[in-house]
Amino acid sequence: MEEQFILRVPPSVAERLDRLLSENASSSSDDKSLDLTFSEDGRSGTFSVGNDHFPAFLLDLPGTVESYKTYDDSVLIKTADIGQMIMVKEEGDNVPDEVEYRHGLTPPMRDARRRRFRREPDLNPELVRRAEKDLQNIMAGGTAENIDILPVTLAFRM
Question: Does some domain include residue 146?
Fold first, then answer.
């Protein structure tokens, strides 16, 4: 089983990561160290490249992304379902307010939650609490409160 994640970084950090990953192990550089640490809430943290530190956030994606691997360039093998993304921001950029990233990974998924998925129904919390209480009473052998039972008359024709 593989563990995978999506790491979205600003262009300047992406260039540094590309250089770091493509360099030989023998070359010496200040950017050799990479580190990702999260705070106790598990949603915010710090991404470090060398001596530079960037704020990072764990965000839920609006849908699941499948990851595939190939060994022979013809057969694809599914390796993971990815539902979260680590977003690294530049120092001073705005901090995401929500735990869900509204947009997917590609331009067609822009504002996907609003445009593509069914909207949640508007429910009155008091009505839900009352219905839940009535169901618990009925399951315990009691009756529902504030229910009017109307007599039913049956008429048969012969």
Answer: no
Query: Using alpha carbons only, what angle is made at residue 98 by residues 93 and 103, rounded to the nearest 5 degrees?
Result: 80
User: What's the structural domain count of the chain?
Assistant: 1
Q: Are 144 and 138 in contact (CB under 8 A)?
A: yes
122-146 confidence digits (pLDDT tens): 888 888 888 898 889 888 888 777 7
Q: What does the DSSP assignment read for 49-111?
A: ETTEEEEEEEEEEEEEEEEEEESSSS-EEEEEEEEEEEEE--TTSPPPSSSB-SS-SSGGGTT
Asked if residue 85 is part of any domain, the answer here is yes
Residue 125 belongs to what domain range?
6-139
Residue 18 has pLDDT above 90, yes or no: no
Tell me the pTM. 0.64
CA distance 102 to 26: 42
Q: Across-strand partners of 69? A: 77
Q: Is residue 86 part of a domain?
A: yes
Tokens of 87: 């977003």
Q: How far apart are CA 119 and CA 111, in angstroms?
A: 13
Q: Is residue 158 part of a domain?
A: no
Distance between CA atoms of residues 10 and 127, nearest Å? 46
